[in-house]
Amino acid sequence: MRNSALSLAPDARLTPAAIGRAATLALYDELSLSPKPGLVTLIDCGSHDDMDAHTFMRSLFSLRRYFVQIAEAGSGVADFAVLEQHGIAAEARMLAATGGVNTHRGAIFMLGLLCAAAGAALQEQGGALRAAALREALRRHWGEALARRSQRPSALPGGMAAQRHGLRSASEEAALAFPVLFETALPALNDALARGLSPRLARVDTLFHIIAVLDDSNLAHRGGLAGLREAQRAAQDYLDRGGIARPEGLPEAQAIADDFVRRRLSPGGAADTLAAACWIRRVCTGP
């Protein structure tokens, strides 16, 4: 499962510190990728007027300690309320670092939970970590709390858009132990790398797989239900034509990215899911 560009150093021990470092690196895997439909890259702002790569880097550096802390909390199987408090504090640091801009709220939630689950799984079984064990630890220790959380009304734009349009929210996705991550994104990334695609092209292809199936509340917030469905169709049509593994695959991906920018669409939930898949590649030794 390992790939040199998407893995820890060969001699790295999987400790809470290593789990946290891998999360920071995975967020950079996502940020540094291009083309990405509507999303911030190192060279453009996508569909955003209030953030750029510098904003994301400030945010990323503010979160480094958080991912280690929540992995440590997970290794002690802390109550969900403790994990929430770590996330709330991390969000405050992010907003302070970015001047109030939300760059990584979704990643704080998603990657934070995954880091906690990794800490718990390692504490229980030791040695190498496998993706299935990671998902099972999340379900076993915090699944009920996440299910209760998913029933709360949301005051955030994405959550309200999900409620308005009857979509599966980020909280509901977490309560189900992230099915799009484990059943779509990670298999797509593993398959692309196994086919010999470079890490960059594999990540682009994986991102389109995620956009095609995820109820991305960021897309619904910006473009309504019609915007979400059109984005999903564009991604699926791209994959049906063969995806990135064609001579025209990369320019077609760029054309779709340009179209998302024209329509002000930004699949932030898909970006978080891609980062999470890159993180799993870094910390897990197999499915």
What does this structure look like?
The chain has 287 residues and is mainly alpha-helical. It has one domain (4-283). It is 69% helix and 0% strand. The protein is built from 13 helices and no strands. The protein has helices spanning 16-31, 53-62, 64-75, 80-98, 105-125, 131-149, 157-165, 170-175, 179-194, 199-213, 217-240, 249-262, 268-283. The radius of gyration is 18 Å and the shape is globular. The chain starts with 15 loop residues before the first helix and ends with a helix. The model has no long low-confidence stretch (mean pLDDT 92).
Could you provide a short overview of the structure?
This protein has 287 residues and is mainly α. It has 13 helices and no strands.
Head-to-tail CA distance between termini: 8 Å
Q: What order do the helices and strands follow? A: HHHHHHHHHHHHH
What structural class do you assign from the helix and strand content? Answer: mainly alpha
* Unreliable residue stretches: none
Tell me the total number of β-strands.
0
Overall mean pLDDT: 92
User: Can you give the helix content as a percent range?
Assistant: 55-70%
Overall geometry: globular
Rg of Cα set: 18 Å
Q: What is the count of distinct domains?
A: 1
The total of helices stands at: 13
Largest sheet: none
| Strand residue percentage | under 5%
